[in-house]
Design goal:
Elements lengths: L11 H16 L6 E6 L2 H10 L11 H11 L3 E3 L7 H6 L23 E6 L9 E6 L1 H15 L12 H11 L3 E4 L2 H7 L4 E6 L3 H15 L18
Antiparallel strand pairs: 1-3, 1-4, 2-3, 4-6, 5-6
């Protein structure tokens, strides 16, 4: 819960701007990262609404569609159970009982009591992100998840075959481990490509950024493939 009064502006935005700049520079991401926040206290909701120029869905909308809106349209979204249009996502966020398609497992659901969810481009987020969602090419995803693995020491990477953005965010938040997975089928038509989802725990992002910056300074390149040399060289003739 926020301890500062509602009239005191938060300072997270400046830090997130620097973090995003490093990610975009070092990994050449196609789309800016998106921060996700799960609100459990009304004061957090009030704080968010005071300091963000946000949008709310006018009709029930799937979570993955709202994620696309934040990624591609750079909009800040706030949603509650009544504006979420996906039964699977409602189950993941503990806003609905399990359906026939959903496995009834506590790790696959948020703790009960979520009041609302914020989705925002990282640079404009005035809150502490619970998860950070990156939409990457295969090469970018491999590099980012390898950087996280090296920074966190969490090996081997736990495989997750679920391609739902809602399930990924919940699993990352509950287990405090990064995930890489295929994009939801709806995103192929929305973005016209087949990128991968990489979701990091919000409090892990700074450690990945520190490692990228340290490797750039000490080795001349942040790349884990060839430090100091950003391309592969071939002998011809």
């Amino acid at each position: 819960m926020y301890e500062k009064p509602l009239d005191e502006k938060p300072l997270y935005r400046r830090n997130y701007q620097n973090m995003q700049e490093t990610l975009m520079t070092e990994l050449k991401l196609c789309h800016p990262p998106v921060a996700v926040k799960f609100f459990y206290a009304q004061i957090e909701v009030d704080y968010f609404k005071k300091w963000h120029d946000y949008h709310e869905p006018t009709q029930a909308t799937p979570f993955c569609t709202l994620m696309d809106t934040a990624h591609l349209e750079k909009q800040i979204i706030y949603l509650e159970a009544k504006t979420l249009g996906c039964d699977d996502a409602k189950y993941r966020f503990n806003w609905q009982d399990a359906t026939a398609q959903a496995s009834n497992h506590p790790r696959q659901q948020l703790q009960h009591g979520v009041l609302g969810i914020a989705i925002a481009p990282l640079t404009v987020a005035q809150f502490v992100a619970d998860t950070v969602h990156c939409y990457c090419t295969k090469a970018q995803a491999d590099e980012l998840i390898d950087q996280w693995t090296l920074a966190s020491g969490a090996q081997p990477l736990e495989v997750n075959s679920n391609s739902a953005s809602c399930a990924d965010c919940v699993l990352v938040h509950n287990k405090n481990l990064a995930k890489i997975s295929p994009a939801c089928c709806s995103r192929h038509s929305a973005s016209e490509d087949a990128h991968l989802n990489v979701i990091l725990p919000g409090d892990h992002l700074k450690h990945v950024i520190e490692q990228l910056s340290e490797r750039r300074i000490s080795l001349g390149s942040s790349s884990l493939n060839r430090p100091g040399d950003g391309v592969f060289r071939f002998s011809v003739g």
